[in-house]
């Protein structure tokens, strides 16, 4: 029993499905860097211009953004990269009914997160840590004060006079100034702004405001990249796909020539014993995943963990459980 528990712990540790929570060192090990889709998306993330990464939950948008950010940290020839996750946006929903100017406070929250992430990117290298205090003084956006402001907004707490004043001081132009200074201090030529969980589907009012911020942040040296969902993301009247931004699809078709090789590369990075799973089981689960790596990994894990029955019974139960979970998810949306 002890060995079984140990094996289960090892499996859970090796299969953290959401890339938000994978430690940086494991992110590198668990990335299928030879995947054709990965290579094309990575090029788009590091390129100039505004891009929207379009794909459903679990297709790898967060993973690819975090990996691109890490690549830039380790290679001085690449752009200065800032990675920001907006996955806590739903915490600001109460502001829509409790505050007099919720759009203004949402702007302060979104821009504040970008500023804090910029400080984090600058200080990633220990030799650059002193640059943060220089940026704070030159731009006038103190790190500690911003952290308290963001926390207060996420908790729907009343803002103090100093916090309210700081929220009014954060503007797109000031954030652009900060990004350009940080880029210069780190001796890079341009900046890529990786904005993850930008599809604020559960709060459409904020989504429209956010996409306006993304469009406004774009400049000759700042290239925002925002991850969105197909079908459910509502773009603002001032944000036009094809003109303001280029869509990059992060959803591999099951009919693509590279589908099998790409999906199996991902699985090999996560499962040391992947080759021991029966090939017919792998074929069916890969097809049922419908191009979603997280679904593929989850079903493979489920197959390995279910009580031993016939392979066919286990496989049927795994696919049925996946189908029911996806139907429940989309009905909730």
Gross morphology: globular
Q: How many strands?
A: 5
Tell me the radius of gyration: 22 Å
Low-pLDDT segments: 1-16
Mean pLDDT: 86
Please summarize the sheet with the most strands. Answer: 5 strands, parallel
**Total helical elements:** 15
Q: Which strand order spans the largest sheet, edge to edge or round the barrel?
A: 2-3-4-1-5
What is the helical fraction, as a range of percent? Answer: 55-70%
Assembly context of the chains: single chain
Task: Give the helices and strands as they follow along the chain.
Answer: HHHEHEHHHHHHEHEEHHHH
What's the structural blueprint in terms of helices and strands?
Layout: H1 2-14, H2 24-29, H3 36-46, E1 51-54, H4 61-74, E2 80-85, H5 95-98, H6 102-122, H7 131-139, H8 143-154, H9 161-169, H10 172-185, E3 191-196, H11 204-217, E4 222-228, E5 246-249, H12 259-270, H13 279-288, H14 293-305, H15 311-332
Parallel strand pairs: 1-4, 1-5, 2-3, 3-4
Helix pairs in contact: 3-4, 6-8, 6-10, 6-11, 7-10, 8-9, 13-14, 13-15, 14-15
Features:
333 residues, five-stranded parallel beta sheet, 5 strands, globular, 8% strand, 15 helices, alpha/beta, 55% helix, disordered N terminus, single chain
Any overview of this molecule?
With 333 residues, the chain is of the alpha/beta class. It contains 15 helices and five strands. Strands 2-3-4-1-5 form a five-stranded parallel β-sheet, with helices on both faces. Helix 11 links the parallel strand 3 and strand 4. Helix 6 packs across helix 8 (143-154) and helix 13 (279-288) crosses helix 14 (293-305). It is globular and about 65 Å long.
């Amino acid at each position: 029993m002890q060995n079984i528990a140990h094996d289960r712990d090892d499996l859970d540790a090796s299969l953290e499905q959401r890339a938000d929570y994978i430690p940086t060192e494991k992110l590198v090990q668990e990335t299928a860097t030879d995947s054709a889709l990965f290579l094309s998306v990575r090029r788009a993330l590091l390129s100039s211009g505004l891009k929207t990464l379009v794909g459903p939950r679990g297709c790898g948008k967060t993973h690819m953004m975090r990996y691109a950010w890490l690549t830039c940290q380790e290679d001085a020839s690449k752009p200065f990269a800032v990675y920001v996750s907006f996955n806590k946006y739903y915490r600001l929903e109460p502001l829509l009914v409790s505050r007099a100017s919720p759009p203004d406070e949402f702007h302060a929250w979104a821009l504040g997160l970008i500023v804090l992430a910029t400080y984090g990117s600058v200080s990633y290298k220990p030799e650059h840590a002193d640059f943060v205090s220089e940026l704070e003084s030159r731009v006038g956006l103190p790190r500690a004060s911003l952290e308290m402001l963001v926390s207060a907004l996420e908790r729907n707490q009343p803002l103090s006079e100093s916090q309210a004043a700081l929220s009014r001081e954060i503007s797109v132009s000031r954030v652009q100034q900060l990004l350009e200074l940080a880029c210069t201090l780190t001796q890079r030529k341009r900046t890529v702004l990786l904005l993850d969980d930008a599809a604020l589907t559960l709060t459409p009012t904020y989504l429209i405001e956010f996409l306006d911020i993304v469009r406004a942040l774009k400049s000759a040296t700042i290239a925002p990249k925002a991850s969105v969902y197909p079908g459910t993301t509502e773009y603002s009247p001032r944000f036009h796909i094809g003109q303001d931004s280029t869509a990059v699809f992060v959803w591999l078709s099951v009919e693509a020539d590279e589908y099998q090789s790409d999906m199996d590369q991902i699985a090999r990075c996560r499962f040391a014993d992947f080759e021991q799973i029966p090939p017919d089981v792998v074929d069916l689960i890969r097809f049922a995943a419908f191009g979603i790596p997280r679904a593929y990994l989850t079903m493979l894990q489920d197959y390995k963990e279910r009580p031993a029955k016939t392979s066919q019974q286990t496989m049927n139960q795994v696919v049925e459980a996946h189908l029911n979970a996806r139907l429940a998810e989309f009905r909730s949306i």
